[in-house]
Design a protein that fits this description.
With about 375 residues, the protein is α+β, with helices and mostly antiparallel strands. Helix content is about 25%, strand content about 25%. The chain is built from eight helices and 22 strands.
Length: about 375
């Protein structure tokens, strides 16, 4: 199944941000790419993500460095056209629950120690940094991170897919659950129901389904993906521009003067039907919208216009999983929690590894082989 006579042929499995970004970066590097996905593009986690671009809080240095590089690539994209309404850099605001102000102060100190832009603010000073926040809602100690931003992943995927098409990429949607083909111990392509795609390398970027896809190859990647929900509000004119990460609601601006909302306190209210679909009582959705409204100056009526529920991809040890499988050469994996922040950089570095055969040092601690 070698395609040695033409450009390197890569099959990318999964039409979320990691698959699309890797596919476009592969095309930029001269590969021939087929992108195969189960349903439509952005129908998985990337279609229901808060997608706050950040490296806030505490984490190991290699992960922090990768996230900062991820934000850097978004900055470059932003600079190319700062008028886009789906990619903004207006900062992030965080505070912890009642009685946890010391945690916020410690988080701020940690961020400063990493030279991550972090300003300690109070209800009295928050308005000096970012507009539209209800001062009464803000914790006694809060953090404003001026360098953070947000992206709407479906818009970003559309944007990248224009380049994908222009560069001659082949897209296969509604392929059903596909699997990796292996020949003589090496990845050799992808099989969907009825059709196979030969390839020199395969990228598995199936979001929360990634562990199941590689399990068929005898590879274990622990999975800790929880069920999550993203709510989109009806349009509302409001001056808030920053992403809010607070004890009862996370809020980010969204194209069309809407807001995207999420949190985790209602996870137990989500139920799964026998056909696999999820639901949540509407009263819980309304409660989240109410919590979000209390954060905004003037307490505008926030109405939930739609909500999407599904798995949020999180590897078992919480760290990203990027790189080639030791036991199935030619099969690369991209599976991570912070896939919005890492979307561009992960695609770039993985494409580089596939095309050059040399491993990037910034992915060193994230190899799938660590679970063997
Ligand atoms: C509620 C929520 C909030 C989040 N907040 C943030 C945040 O603030 N910041 C941040 O950086 N990240 C955040 N994330 C995480 C981020 O959105 C995800 O990490 C990222 O979208 C994952 O992209 P992906 O391409 O890996 O997976 P997905 O978007 O899930 O795409 C995988 C695709 O693969 C397809 N697929 C699956 N199995 C197969 C198969 N066998 N064959 C073919 N196709 C298959 C699926 O249909 C899907 O379209 C959040 C996620 C959620 C859900």
């Amino acid at each position: 199944m070698s395609t040695a006579d033409g450009p390197r042929r890569v099959a990318v499995l999964g039409g979320g941000i990691l698959g699309v970004s890797t596919a476009v970066h592969l095309l930029r590097e001269g590969a021939s790419v087929v992108l195969i996905t189960e349903a439509e593009l952005a129908s998985g986690a990337s279609g229901r993500s808060l997608s706050w671009l950040n490296s806030a809080g505490e984490r190991a240095t290699p992960y922090h460095q990768l996230r900062v590089a991820g934000i850097d690539r978004y900055r470059t994209l932003f600079a190319a056209d700062p008028t886009r309404d789906w990619l903004r850099f207006d900062g992030g605001l965080h505070w912890a629950g009642t009685g946890a102000d010391q945690d916020t102060v410690a988080r701020h100190a940690h961020e400063r120690a990493h030279a991550y832009d972090s300003v300690l603010v109070s209800p009295e000073t928050v308005g000096d940094h970012t507009p539209g926040i209800s001062a009464e809602a803000v914790g006694a100690a809060a953090i404003f991170n001026p360098g953070e931003g947000w992206v709407s992943l479906p818009h970003l995927i559309d944007h990248l897919m224009e380049e994908f098409t222009a560069r001659g990429g082949e897209l296969v949607t509604n392929a059903g659950a596909a699997r990796v083909l292996v020949e003589e111990g090496r990845a050799a392509g992808v099989a969907t129901t009825g059709v196979s795609f030969a390839a020199d390398d395969v990228v598995v970027a199936c979001g929360p389904q990634t562990p199941a896809v590689v399990a068929e190859l005898g590879v274990e990647i622990p999975d800790a993906s929880p069920v999550s929900m993203l709510v989109t509000t009806a349009p509302v004119e409001h001056p808030v521009r920053t992403v809010l990460n607070t004890p009862r609601a996370a809020v980010r601006p969204n194209p069309g003067t809407t807001f995207a909302l999420d949190h985790d306190w209602y996870e137990e209210s989500i139920t799964q039907a026998q056909d696999g679909t999820y639901s949540i009582p509407e009263a819980v959705v309304d409660e989240l919208a109410g919590e979000a409204a209390t954060l905004l100056e003037g307490r505008p009526p926030l109405t939930a216009a739609s909500w999407k529920i599904g798995l949020k991809p999180i590897p078992g040890d919480g760290e990203p999983v990027f790189g080639e499988l030791d036991t199935v050469p030619g099969c690369f994996v991209a599976f991570t929690h912070s896939g919005a922040t890492l979307g561009l950089i992960a695609g770039e570095l993985l494409a580089g590894e596939i095309m050059t055969g040399s491993k990037h040092p910034m992915l060193e601690t994230f190899r799938p082989g660590r679970f063997a």
